[in-house]
Specification:
With 292 residues, the protein is an alpha+beta fold. The chain has six helices and 14 strands. The strands form two sheets. A seven-stranded antiparallel sheet has the order 1-2-3-13-12-8-9. The model has no long low-confidence stretch (mean pLDDT 95).
């Protein structure tokens, strides 16, 4: 895998205020390129962490692998007082997408019909917030407390996360989702996958990114979509850390793809531990004998 830095915003777009730890780069893998953009925004420090790697699995194996690495990361971070979201996805060479998620770092698929130019957005994940009625009921059933402001103990917005060991009822059990991208690609449509921290959606919804995606295509700046999306979010009021990983899915994938984001809160220790744990899991999987 190789990485190179480029910065390719839309005409008239202003970049985010720079910080020393900001990341803007391309990560190439067999058959495509993931654009990675990570910005501190207006926060005192950066708590987001991300990982991109190749990983050749089929759909069934991908689901099992995600379950395993989430379980391992949960054990590693169980006693951490601070917490982190965690969303990881695998795209197989036959265009099956599998995703596991804790917290509110969304995975969104954008599908474009070249014949009409129409684009639709589909959010694959749901936000694990304590104010959600089902999550609130579960937390209280497990002995936790959701305050009137919709936060656990009046403090934590998330109902599921890595770490956060001081909060009763906050679950480390992920949810899973799947998408068959092959149907869209076989129909001649363009498919883009965006994995991000919640800073991308602090004031916006996934459908709001259809306009900048169209503009990027018209201006032949698809290669900079992660930066375009991050700058778009900041210009529309997001003050959070913003990290986005965006890939246009190739019709002929040479390698399977793994992408993950962990968005820390209360510090970056847990988000760092989660990504390190995911990286270890990938290394172990690659070193093991194939089991197709």
């Amino acid at each position: 895998m190789t990485a190179s830095s480029r910065h390719n915003l839309l005409d008239g777009q202003k970049p985010l205020p720079p910080h020393s730890g900001d990341v803007s780069k391309d990560i190439a893998f067999g058959g495509a390129t993931v654009r990675a953009a990570s910005y501190q925004g207006e926060r005192p420090y950066q708590e987001d962490r991300f990982l991109v790697d190749t990983l050749d699995l089929n759909g069934r194996q991908a689901r099992s692998f995600l379950a395993d690495i989430f379980s391992t990361a949960a054990k590693k971070t169980n006693a951490n007082p601070d917490g982190s979201t965690g969303t990881a996805l695998v795209i197989t060479k036959d265009h099956q997408l599998r995703v596991a998620f804790l917290g509110d770092s969304p995975a969104v698929v954008f599908v474009r019909d070249p014949a009409t130019g129409d684009i639709r957005a589909r959010k694959l994940t749901r936000d694990h917030h304590a104010a959600d009625p089902d999550e609130k009921t579960r937390i209280e059933r497990e002995g936790g407390h959701v305050a009137f402001n919709g936060r656990v103990d009046g403090s934590l917005m998330l109902s599921r996360a890595f770490g956060d060991g001081v909060y009763i009822g906050v679950s480390q059990n992920p949810e899973f989702a799947a998408a068959d991208l092959k149907k869209e690609i076989d129909a001649g449509r363009d498919v883009y996958v965006c994995l991000s921290s919640d800073g991308l959606y602090e004031t916006l919804d996934p459908a709001d990114y259809i306009a900048p995606l169209k503009a990027a295509i018209d201006q032949k700046k698809e290669d900079g979509l992660a930066d375009v999306f991050a700058a778009y979010a900041h210009a529309r009021g997001s003050s959070d850390n913003i990290t986005a990983l965006v890939v246009k899915i190739p019709r002929d994938m040479k390698d399977g793809l793994f992408m993950a984001i962990a968005d820390g809160h209360g510090g970056a220790q847990t988000s760092t531990d989660v990504i390190d744990s995911f990286r270890d899991g990938i290394a172990k999987r690659k070193s093991a004998a194939p089991s197709r």
